[in-house]
Amino acid sequence: MQQPQKKSIYQYLLVMWLLSIVVSCNCKNASKPATKKKPDTTKEIQPTLPNLVLNSDKTTLQGDDVKFQLELKNDSEGEVNLSEYTLQINLQEEGERGEGSMLHYQDAGNSGHDESEINQSLIYFTKQTGLKKGNPTIILPFELHHVAGVTKVTITITLEHKDKKENTPPITIVWNKFPPIMDQMIQDAKSKGYNFLADVLTKLQKGEAVDINSIYTTAEKETALHQAVRLRNLQIVNALLQRGAELKKNEYGHTPLRYAIKKGYVEIAEVLIEKIDGSQLNEKEYKKNTTLEYAIVHGYIGISKALIKKLNVLQLNTIGSKHNTALHYAVQADSEIVEELILKGVELDIRNQHDDTPLHLAVERNDLEIVKILLAKGADKTIVNDAGKMPVDLAKTTEMIDLLSK
Which element (helix H / strand E) includes 114? Predict the structure, then answer.
């Protein structure tokens, strides 16, 4: 009976020893911080898309310059699948009135399109389906068709990949009907004391409403165009003309053109003549002579020719100071102007207040060259003036008498 009891004691001691070992191990483990499992930081490798580069040959357009072209090239080693890219183009218009500007372009089949909004795959524009590095650049030409009243169009162009992972930066092209008003133009006007002109330019620059032909209420009662001519700033003159400036008279009856001629600002005068409607160009001013007569008398041959080309026959035959016409003044000035006037069809035998014809005056000046021109064109040499004299009676040389006696 003692042996089983002894065995039982041994078993008890063995169990206790094993428990002590377990407790000891747990304590040691408890003294150490638990180790967290490190997350898997391995990134999923995405395939690199070929780099399709979009460029434009222009970023600004102005006036009649309305054409531009987009250029596509591959800058990477892989081949670009053009069907995976979409070209998006939007137009935003500015102006007092009118809308409906469009872009004209051709598709891959050479069919023409006019649209204000474009959203098409690249293969809609070209028969080419892929583009490798070193391949010729793909050219896509466009032309802006703007409508009256629109003064500015902003064209925004975006190239999008179907997975939207490799979009190229958008391109912006801006068309302006007129050149922008620059800060320097405003400063130039202010520096010379032309504050009214500076105010008008500032409003135009900001897009604010302004009557460009309003009169500045000083003693001279001038317009902004008067002051721009006085400033002798051709850039400002052009900017005002493009926005509708007209040849208004000031308090003394002078137009900006008359002032430009008087001061010898030939380039400005020629620009005014070119861009102003002909109906405004030959008005009589305070001494009743016309702008053309003034230019002829003061020897501005180039300006005179420019005016003659712009004016119609009725204007060229306008009677000015002392009932003279432009031809009366021309025969006393320059043979080239005489020929220009005759080519336009002016009256050869028109009389002034003394009943002198242009031929009378040319003979009196003993200008054989001009007399020959007038006679060759059919001038009447038998007309008598109010002193009872025909042209031959005013001849001073035998050569002139012989010429008129034929």
Answer: strand 112-115
